[in-house]
Amino acid sequence: MSAGDASRQMGTIAGTVEATIASRPSVPRRAYLDHNATSPLRPEARAALVAALDAGGNASSVHAEGRAARARIEAARAAVAALAGAPVRGVVFTSGATEAAALALHPAVEIAGRAKRCDVLLASAVEHPAVLKGHRFPSDALEILPVDGEGRLDLAALDEALARHRAAGRRAMLAVMAANNETGVIQPVAEAARLVHEADGIVFCDAVQAAGRIPLDMAALGADFLALSAHKIGGPPGVGALVAAGPDHRTAPLLSGGGQERNRRAGTENGPAIVGFGAAANAVNAVLAAEAERLAVLRDRLERVVLEGVPGTRVVGAGADRLPNTTMVTFAGLRAETLVIALDLAHVSISAGSACSSGKVGASQVLLAMGLPEDEAAGAIRLSLGWSSTIEDVDAAVEALKKAVPQLRSRASRAA
């Protein structure tokens, strides 16, 4: 075969392939509204992660590659500290927020180098399941505190519990999230921390959902320890941090071995993931105020159009301060899992509450703790926005709900 014939044959093959591809039905664009479960990897985080993987090196080694790896981790530590409004030496990297909670929730605590053993763990009824496990506190040392109808910690109940335990000679640790992962309701952390510290207690704050969405300042919050997770802000999964308000605040390590993380967390650091975490934190810090405003506009549009266009709906926690990116909506007469599937088929990704428990059938414990009837709580879905969200995503979700809800209600009434 001559060169010309070969060239013509290749051209024919290429044309056939292009025609075949062109004839395939295009895949509809998906609208991703589940950033509270995990936020897509930011380009900045991906680039930093890949570069760190290529560079290699163990941060505990003293040669050039090790020193470079250490420098990358320390730069990430500074970025994460800035995200939390905390001292750099207070940041301990972990495998995620669950490990951070497990590290913090322990009776043996040191504050500024002084032992302050805690006898009981108080936790709001709307905490994440990872916190409600109590971790290294005995099960009989865990006390659940009520919340009001908007899902905010009942400060009077907290005050009463603190007084009761202090009168019995017991010191309390309080676990209270900065903002709820399902409803987005912002908790009165500073007010709660003031009460706890007046009773000589300790405050642990799950700030996983708040980070990157509202400003964080550990001193203003009054938290002694604070948990973060990279993948909620567009960083890689599998990395988080326990942040202490002071360099000499600590709890008993979960892992013993080497002296990594200033003897707080043994094991070779996941350097590339940590670097990706730092890059995501830097990206968030650079646009925090503007991004919060943008997301609030999108969220308000979403809620307004859904409430106007779909009867029998309401927004949970609408009377409280909430994260600008999160909305939880109940649909009377429907099951949340059915709505999640219907929207998935319409190329819209949402969830039925916490991703850590949304695979379970049943009403959200958060909503039940807020006093919602079980049938209403069972029909609640969460839509959460993030850095990659657009007005097209919001409009796609609204249109999908306008179509799916009447159809599902009609089927339910026929089956009744």
From TrEMBL:
It comes from the Bacteria. Its cofactor is pyridoxal 5'-phosphate. It catalyses: (sulfur carrier)-H + L-cysteine = (sulfur carrier)-SH + L-alanine. InterPro entries: Aminotrans_V_dom (IPR000192), Cysteine_dSase (IPR016454), PyrdxlP-dep_Trfase (IPR015424), PyrdxlP-dep_Trfase_major (IPR015421), PyrdxlP-dep_Trfase_small (IPR015422). Residues 32-396 form the Aminotransferase class V domain. Signal peptide: none annotated. Belongs to the class-V pyridoxal-phosphate-dependent aminotransferase family. NifS/IscS subfamily. This is Cysteine desulfurase. Catalyzes the removal of elemental sulfur atoms from cysteine to produce alanine. Seems to participate in the biosynthesis of the nitrogenase metalloclusters by providing the inorganic sulfur required for the Fe-S core formation. Keywords: Iron, Iron-sulfur, Metal-binding, Pyridoxal phosphate, Transferase. The keyword Cell cycle does not apply.
